[in-house]
């Protein structure tokens, strides 16, 4: 989809549309038995999904809480959109720009995040048949005991991502990018090919066999930290420290 079409999708949303969606989600969260439904004032997409493409939530954000949603298209959405204690099935988040440390936690199945910006996203504990191809997922982190099954991370930027106590079954990481601060700790890989590169790898197994701890990027990570400390010191002196990122990545 070209830039003009994406802009059109975003401009169609009014404040009242966003407020209406928030109200729908709140009402649905009070219904105990799933599935839950939301509606848009536009027809379904060509794929038969609820058309929430281009949603821009602004400072108010959008909390998807205590619901089970199916067949919703949030492609090209922007803002602090999080899914707390919610199950998502057959949903699209392609080219979304999630900000302000969002989270998508509980069960995420058959969802796509292609070319999405997912920096600092917290995800898990169950992620099945999901596609993160081309995603910018710097500082992505898994919640404890997350299981990734048949997930695709091809071409994803996982710089600084933190995976702890996670398992990967039948996943793909072709051309995925890792940095010296990417961490795999107490992880298990089953039928999953991965080149760790400069990542920190600790107490991890591949097809049931323990792999040696490694951190090929340790020197680079320490150098990055030193540079960050120096920048932070200069920021404090200049009065700009409040606007600096919270980590060296």
TrEMBL record:
InterPro entries: 5peptide_repeat. It comes from the Bacteria. It holds the Pfam family Pentapeptide_3. This is Pentapeptide repeat-containing protein.
């Amino acid at each position: 989809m070209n830039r003009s079409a994406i802009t059109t999708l975003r401009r169609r949303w009014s404040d009242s549309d966003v407020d209406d969606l928030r109200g729908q989600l709140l009402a649905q969260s009070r219904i105990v038995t799933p599935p839950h439904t939301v509606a848009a004032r536009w027809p379904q997409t060509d794929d038969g999904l609820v058309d929430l493409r281009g949603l821009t939530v602004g400072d108010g954000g959008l909390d998807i809480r205590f619901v089970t949603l199916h067949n919703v298209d949030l492609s090209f959405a922007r803002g602090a959109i999080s899914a707390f204690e919610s199950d998502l099935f057959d949903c699209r988040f392609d080219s979304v720009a999630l900000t302000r440390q969002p989270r998508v936690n509980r069960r995420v199945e058959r969802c796509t995040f292609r070319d999405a910006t997912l920096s600092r996203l917290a995800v898990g504990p169950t992620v099945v048949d999901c596609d993160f191809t081309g995603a910018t997922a710097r500082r992505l982190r898994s919640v404890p005991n997350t299981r990734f099954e048949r997930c695709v991370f091809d071409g994803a930027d996982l710089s600084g991502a933190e995976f702890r106590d996670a398992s990967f079954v039948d996943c793909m990481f072709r051309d995925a990018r890792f940095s010296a601060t990417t961490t795999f700790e107490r992880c298990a890989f089953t039928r999953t090919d991965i080149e760790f590169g400069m990542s920190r790898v600790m107490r991890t197994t591949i097809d049931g066999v323990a792999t040696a701890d490694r951190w090929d990027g340790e020197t680079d990570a320490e150098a990055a930290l030193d540079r960050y400390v120096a920048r932070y010191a200069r920021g404090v002196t200049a009065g700009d420290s409040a606007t600096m990122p919270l980590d060296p990545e």
